[in-house]
Amino acid sequence: QYKPIFAFYFMLYLIGLGLNERSISKEALEIIPRCKRVYLENYTVDFPYKIESLEKEIGVELMPLGREEVESEKFLDEAKKINIALLIYGDVLAATTHISLIMKCNKEEIKFKIFHNFGIFNAISETGLQMYKFGKTASMPRWQENYFPDSFAEIIKDNLKIKAHTLLLIDIGLEIKKALEQLKTACGNHKLFLDKIVVCSMMGTEHQKIYYEKADNLPKDIKSPFCIIIPSVKLHDMEKEALSELANL
Hints:
This protein is α/β, with parallel strands linked by helices. 28% of the residues lie in helices and 19% in strands.
């Protein structure tokens, strides 16, 4: 069992950014100046703001880390000699990759501290859908030539069987038009009929939008980052009322 330690040692700070460039915590802002290097994990999301805006808010120049660099975990060795920080969009531990980072730290006795923040799993509560009624979360990858994974449709089907909502996370770089095409094709492959769906765009920012429409009626210019929610076929009366009032504003 890992034991985070906050003391005067060289450390790795895993810092959640929240959903906009100003939502980093005051506690995290006090820690960042102590770090020799401040990395930004930049491969799991289309940021809803310019990285320069984030650097201005934080007051440091950020060093981007791609998927291979994060998953190799080599940068963790630096935390044995200097203080480093890894900034992560949303909350810190939503992605499996980041769980593996703290497991490696625990194994190699690298000191670390986690600064949580809010992420998409919190923000979707603004739809009015009840959080305890969500089932398993699914991810929609970007289809490529001869590669059309659609197992997310089976997860949607399984959730619908137990009257649960499905949060569908969208791969980076996948625009709304293509995402809706993939959703329609995948559901057709799995003999799954969808009525109205929810799309949440740029949540946590001043430009956030929540849409509740049939897929064919949704705007084709919805901005990234966005997620899709497949509501349960059986909505609570309060959920119906909230969706009708909070969506499409």
